[in-house]
Amino acid sequence: MTNPATTVIRVNLEMAKEVAQEWERASYQELSAYCLEILKEIGFSTTELPENLQSREQQLNFITGFASYAFGEVLNVQTIS
Asked: How many CA atoms lie within 13 A of 62 on its CB side?
């Protein structure tokens, strides 16, 4: 049996872009520290950034993605079969 309701997350890209623009002015150390804070917030107990978050571009993308999710609006949408 399929679940008749599906959870959909609509992200707020405008707010996420604003966050990204603010962080573009940050130093590499500030970006790294914030990425570590985000990782801790979502349950990772690490003191070093993973391999896929070593570059400034990767870190900015991660922060923007997290902001998109954080500012998202969760909706329950009824699906019709």
From this structure: 21
